What does this fold into?
Amino acid sequence: MSLVGLPQVDRWFRGPEVEFADTVVAGKAVVPQLEAWAQAHGVALELGWKVELARRVKRALLNRRPGKIAPETLEMWERLFAALQQREEASTATK
It folds into this structure.
């Protein structure tokens, strides 16, 4: 998760004294970390929480001025979406 996403988690799940942004470990998968943080601090993660978080992060990114997103982050996203597109194309080609 980019640094943009961390404040989104803490804004959404107000209440715990320890913010998620203060506990996240770079380089580790974010979802298990967030689930563990939520459990440790009594935060209920409702069905669809990952989708809602993705929407909030997207909104925060779109509200930023161009050039505020690190080039390496954009490159990572481009690789991710290219891989997803290739997977989708391979999947539909075999059907």
User: Anything to note?
Assistant: Residues 32 and 85 are 25 Å apart (CA to CA).
